[in-house]
Amino acid sequence: MNIALIQDRLREYACATSLEEECATKEIVQEVCLAALSRAGFFRKAVFQGGTALRVLYQLPRFSEDLDFILKAPDRKFVMDKFLRKVVEELNDYGFRFEFQDRSRVDENVRKAFLKDDSWASILTFQHLAPRSTRPKKIQIKIEVDTNPPDGSVSEGRILDYPFPFTIVVQDMPSLLAGKSHALLCRPFIKGRDWYDFLWYARKRTQPNLTFLKNALYQTGPWKGLNVDVTSDWYYDSMEKRIEAIDWDEAKRDIRRFLRAIEIPSIDLWNRSFFQQQLTKMRRS
């Protein structure tokens, strides 16, 4: 492999700031990771989900950080090491110097690992990043795999073509929204990224996979172990209450670094009334 393939991809982003260049590099690395995982047979066991899945498969217009997956069937003995080694081999074929750290614990359902590299700023050419001595030292990608996922997720096969054609398995849109809704309803802290993604779903008039959401709520969060009747009305009423409780200034601070400079003015619209309006449109669709 040749680093020129990465450089050409970076050029396609037409980045306007140094932060955009850093985020774009991370995203390109994510795409190579997906290709390597596919080659290693990972998607025979796992399904792609989360915000990065939206960006890669559905062109969500924000930068993303992590690669999130669920297993197709529960497997508490699942280990990531053999797949991570393949990813590191693939990345380093391009000239990087990646290494991985498996932070998984056997007593936790979600396996966690980090891919790290400190060579990226010296092997690529940038238009906006500062001189090498002040450039970021490391690029880091977090990978999470839920080894005991809730029942009810629906997935589909898709083909990607960068850095070469390969197949992956990804959740369908209603299941992706259900997973995001579980985070919105249950996460104990505010992530503006979650709410940005919610707006994207609302514009698409996507409706959540309520079976998957119910099983996720039963498994973790304030409704854990409760037999909640997750109907459409329950969902929209619960989302309305959640919107009322959000500190929107904090949400705006979180999302800012994940947006291109041209998009940042749009978050000035973010407040309780704006999100309630979007929720109402979604509910009526």
Q: Can you describe this structure?
A:
With 285 residues, this protein is of the alpha+beta class. It has helices at residues 3-12, 18-39, 51-58, 81-93, 120-123, 173-186, 192-204, 210-219, 232-245, 248-255, 272-284; strands spanning 46-49, 67-71, 99-102, 110-117, 139-146, 155-160, 166-171. It has a 5-stranded mixed β-sheet. A hairpin with a 7-residue loop joins strand 3 and strand 4. Helix 6 packs parallel to helix 8 (210-219).
List descriptors.
285 residues; five-stranded mixed beta sheet; 45% helix; globular
Task: Give the number of helices.
Answer: 11
Low-confidence stretches: none
- So what's the overall shape? globular
Largest sheet: 5 strands, mixed
Distance between the termini: 47 Å
Task: Tell me the helix content.
Answer: 40-55%
Give the strand content.
5-15%
The gyration radius over C-alpha positions equals 19 Å
Structural class given helices, strands, pairing? alpha+beta
**Main β-sheet, spatial strand arrangement:** 1-2-5-4-3
- Multimerization status: single chain
Count the strands? 7
What letter string, H or E per element, gives the SSE order?
A: HHEHEHEEHEEEHHHHHH
- What is the average per-residue confidence, as pLDDT, rounded to a whole number? 93
